[in-house]
Design a protein that fits this description.
By secondary structure, the protein is of the alpha/beta class. The protein contains six helices and eight strands; from the N terminus they run E-E-E-H-E-H-E-H-E-H-H-E-E-H. 29% of the residues are buried.
Length: 268
């Protein structure tokens, strides 16, 4: 199979100039097979997360598609996000795919929080409807966005504000505690003697240092953890299984899991 070419793409924004060090506001990586000029190309953008090396990019390139993991200037800058500005900068990437990369068909991939963003882009490109934020001027580039040929929603939600406001319930109820403790005690009866110290609801299994918890409990023989993956649970499920599964089944020697070991949260 041909090698995958990963081409850095840095382009001007129709709204602001280059950074002080010279970087373009709009940046991404275009993935394709060496020697090919894909007729169909995907573009994926998130309102905050860096999608330049999106987990699907290599898989799609191997199958003959182009894949532009694209970032607006709001990558890592969620607090200053402006929808109309972001849509105009997504348009820069779409136009590059058509005019420079030679794509005849461009597919919008709305993944996770990028789902509502890419849907808004296509809506604006087909029938302009977005208005500027209060006290800000209209953007000419917003009225001339190149429409795409297909929109795909992948593990998408309607937007973080709506999810946090309407979907998630952080309350802790007695019924839930009884159910959780009942299950835990059936698995590990010694918990019958454990005192309840506090109650809290974790909306995502995150950790203080941002790394998952994988490995044996440093105090309880036979207890293993494979949790704490945060927003990347599905993405990291396979590699976690490869690390833990063979050890638990006795088919492999335990790997060095120091960096993600649960022991890092216990003092000596």
């Amino acid at each position: 199979m041909s090698e995958i070419v990963r081409e850095f793409v840095g382009l001007p924004s129709p709204l602001i100039g280059r950074a002080g060090a010279g970087g373009h506001p709009c940046q991404g990586i275009y993935h394709r097979l060496e020697g090919s000029q894909p007729r169909t190309a995907f573009i994926a953008t998130h309102y905050n997360v860096d999608f330049s090396e999106h987990y699907l990019a290599s898989f799609m390139a191997e199958r003959g598609y182009g894949f532009l993991g694209w970032n607006t200037r709001f990558r890592g800058n969620e607090a200053h996000f402006l929808l109309d500005h972001a849509l105009a900068e997504i348009g820069v990437g779409v136009r590059w795919l058509r005019e420079q990369a030679g794509a005849e068909r461009v597919v919008l991939l709305g993944n996770s929080g990028g789902g509502s963003l890419m849907a808004a882009y296509q809506s604006q490109a087909v029938e302009p409807n977005v208005t500027p934020t209060a006290d800000m001027h209209p953007i000419a580039a917003l009225e001339d966005l190149p429409a795409c040929d297909l929109f795909i929603a992948l593990a998408a939600h309607s937007g973080r504000p709506e999810v946090l406001t309407n979907w998630l319930d952080a309350s802790v109820t007695d019924d839930a505690i009884v159910q959780l403790l009942g299950t835990a005690r059936r698995v590990y009866p010694a918990l019958e003697r454990a005192p309840e110290l506090r109650r809290w609801a974790g909306l995502r299994p995150g950790t203080p240092d941002g790394r998952p918890i994988i490995g044996r409990d440093p105090r309880i023989e036979g207890l293993w953890y494979a949790t704490g993956h945060g927003r990347n649970g599905i993405l990291l499920a396979a590699v976690t299984a490869e690390l833990v599964g063979p050890v638990l089944s006795g088919d492999a020697v335990e790997s060095d899991l120091t960096a993600v070991s649960p022991a890092r949260f216990w003092s000596e």
